[in-house]
Structure formats: C-alpha cells, structure tokens
Design brief:
heterodimer, A: 280 residues, mainly alpha, two-stranded antiparallel sheet, 3 strands, B: mainly alpha, 5 helices, 1% strand, disordered N terminus
C-alpha cells in the first residue's frame, strides 16, 4: 500500500472515532481531529483547522439528522442562540489576528477545566428539580418536549435565556478565534444556565455547531486551507462516526453521557493548556 | 411558570419543522458524502488526474502553492478529476447548514413566528457572507 492510500485509511478510521465521541458528548469532533492531524501526521495547523472545520459541519449534519428525527433537538432554542454564536464567530474572526493564540488556548483550557469540575458535582443529582420557565422562553415558545423513559414524552422548561445567550456569544467568539465548534461551551450554557436536560443540550449543541462552523468554513475553503485529500477522509470518517454516536446518545442514560462529557472536557482542557504553554 | 416532569404532546408545527430540517440535513449529508466518496474511489482506483502525486504534496508539506477557484473546480469536473468531485462534495457539506437555516426561516415566517423568523434570516445573512468567503 502506498503512502497516500495508507494515510487516507488511518485518517478515515481515526475520524470515525472522533466523530462518534464528538456526537455523543455534543462536541464537533474538531478538537480531536486537530491533534490527530498535527501530532499524528505533523500536518500544518492551518490545514488541520481547515479539515477540522469541515469535520465540525459533518458531525453537526450527520448527527443532527438523526437527533432531530428522534426529538432530542430543540430547533427553536437553536434558532434563538445561533444569533449569538454566529455574531460571536464573526467578531472572533475579525479579532483573531490581534489576540495571541497562546493566551486563548490557556483561557479556553482553564474555562473547560473549571466547567468539568462543576459538572462532576452535578452528576449525582441529574434532573428531577423544578425549574421556573424564563418569560422570554414562554413568549418565543422555547420550552419543549424530549423522549423520556418507556417511550413517553417529557416536557421541559427553558430558564436563564439571557445568561445562556451571553455564554453563546462567548462560545461563538472562541469558535471564530480558534476554528473549532465550541460544542463544550454550548452544552455548558444550555445545561447550567438554561437548565435544559443534558441529552437535549448535547443534541441541540450538535445541531448548532454546524452553523457556527459554516460561518467561517467558507473563508478557510476559499483561502485554500481545506486540502481535498486531508478533508475527504476526515469528512467521511466523521460523518460515519457521528451517526453511530447520535444513535448511541438516544440509548445511553443521561448520567452516562454527562460522565463521558466530563472525561472529554478534562482531556480537551489539558490539551488546550499544554498548547498554551507551547507543549504539544 | 413551574414545570414538573410529566407526559406531554409536542407542538404539531415543531414536528413538521423537525422533519423538514432533518430531511435537509440528511439530503445534504448523502449528496456531499457520495461526491466525496466518489472522488476518493476514483483516486484509489488509479485516476490521478489533477491530483497530488506524493503524500507530502497531499498534506501541504511540499510547500507547493495550492489555489482553489470556481473555474478550477468546474474544469476539473469536465476532466473527471477526483479532486474536483471531492471539492464539490465539501462545498455541498458547507452549504448544508446554510440551507437548513433558510428552511427554518421560511418555516417560521410561514407560521407567523416573526421574531424567530427574523433571527433565522439574520443568521442566514451571516452564513452567506461566510460562504462567499468574505475576508478570505
């Protein structure tokens, strides 16, 4: 087998794994694709980010089709919050050349690490609590229903609309600055500020990250940072993996998803902090 | 208003919107995946028209210039270049979230949900600016 063929095969199977994990915990998979390409194959980070942006859209679309059908995605919440993420991503892209990347990596890594610690405390008391619906959520009909145990539909309210919107601006800003989907921050905003069920947060994050990434992907594409033989195995692998991940998400318990999310969050935060210190 | 966990019936409009959006995502993914897979299959089948010859060239390590343009993709399709099929597939993937937002905007406007419809139109504008590569 020749070099290129072997490269395509390895990147494809690595991307299947990244896509499955990404869809399962509501991340775009981009944070996993970039280290695979840069550390595993010594590829220029600009080209890795170009492929990563494509993988974020692939995860979002591949998993989104399944999750929307299964009733886990809240399309109204996504429509509302996308105003914040897209605006944030645009501002991030404009600010990007003026901010030191290493400071961003450190900041992002620290935010994620604190988030992981906060979520560990929540695993024990998932759901069950009475939540007061935000008046704006009531006006825009943002509260929804999701599949519950035994095939029943459970209604859930949406709280903290403006704090969630603010966190989404930050998520979009970081997405524009670092070229990732910022799924971790999106899940965190919906889970902690808006008090959505974790599965709904993961599914809606999956749904939204494609739009956030699409805002900047065209720029990467026309700049020539999306190389066909890097992006193709990544896109196909992540598409396949995200479909497996989305199917598994419907079957897994909320606490299992949350624990998986905490593990990934911790790993990504350490990776970000190390990058901030120039260690890869 | 306080909610308790209880069985509930989803809004009929939401079910229709979810179906339409799911259809767009599935359609976009299938078309994009098929085009990219076709390009990879042609390449693996030995057709290297307009394709990188070495791994270094494919992964940008050779330092060779890489230009992309609508004209290059179009002429590549005419020549049956595997890279052109992959590039068009990636463009379809890029457009999928944009079409999804457009469908959502149309659906919300048709159901007189004006505030959410305007929000979707605003996002659509930003996505179109990104798609044409403003700032590239």
């Amino acid at each position: 087998m020749h070099g290129i063929e072997l490269f395509l095969l390895i990147v494809f199977f690595s991307s299947v794994g990244a896509g499955a994990l990404g869809a399962l915990v509501g991340l775009g998979g981009g944070v996993l694709v970039v280290p695979i390409l840069t550390i595993g194959f010594d590829i220029d980070i600009r080209l890795a980010i170009g492929a990563s942006i494509i993988s974020v859209i692939a995860t979002s679309s591949g998993a989104g089709a399944t999750l929307v059908r299964d009733g886990l995605t809240n399309v109204r919440v996504a429509t509302f919050l996308q105003v914040a993420t897209s605006s944030g991503a645009l501002c991030g892209a404009i600010l990007a050349p003026h901010v030191a990347t290493k400071i961003l990596f450190l900041l992002f890594g620290c935010i994620l690490l604190v988030s992981a610690v906060l979520m560990v405390r929540k695993v024990a008391n998932d759901g069950a609590a009475d939540i007061t619906e935000d008046p704006l959520a009531a006006r825009l009909h943002l509260s929804g229903t999701a599949p519950g145990p035994g095939g029943t539909l459970i209604s859930y309210p949406v709280a903290g609309v403006w704090p969630g919107f603010g966190m989404m601006l930050l998520a979009g800003l970081i997405s524009g600055l670092l070229g990732i989907g910022s799924g971790a921050l999106k899940v965190l905003a919906m889970d902690t500020a808006m008090r959505l069920p974790i599965k709904v947060s993961s599914a809606t994050s999956n749904f939204m990250i494609g739009v956030t990434a699409a805002a900047s992907a065209g720029i990467y594409y026309w700049r020539g940072d999306v190389r066909p033989l890097i992006a193709a195995p990544v896109a196909l692998g992540v598409l396949l993996g995200s479909m497996f991940g989305a199917k598994a998400l419907v079957r897994f318990r909320s606490s299992t998803v949350r624990i998986a999310f905490i593990i990934v969050l911790t790993g990504v935060s350490i990776q970000m902090i190390l990058k901030g210190f120039g260690i890869s | 208003m306080t909610f308790a966990a209880e069985p509930h019936t989803p809004r009929a409009d939401d079910v229709r919107l979810a179906r339409a959006v799911g259809l767009v995502l599935r359609g976009g993914v299938i078309i994009a995946g098929a085009l990219v897979a076709l390009g990879v299959a042609l390449f693996l089948g030995g057709d290297h028209t307009g394709s990188p010859r070495t791994l270094d060239e494919a992964t940008g390590k050779s330092g060779a210039e890489f230009h992309i343009s609508v004209h290059r993709i179009w002429s590549g399709l005419g020549d049956g270049s595997p890279m052109a099929f992959i590039e068009v597939g990636l463009l379809v993937l890029l457009l999928t979230p944009t079409v999804r937002v457009a469908i959502t905007a149309w659906f919300l406007a048709a159901h007189r949900e004006r505030v959410l419809a305007w929000m979707a139109i605003f996002v659509l504008g930003l996505l179109l600016l990104g798609f044409i590569g403003v700032g590239a």
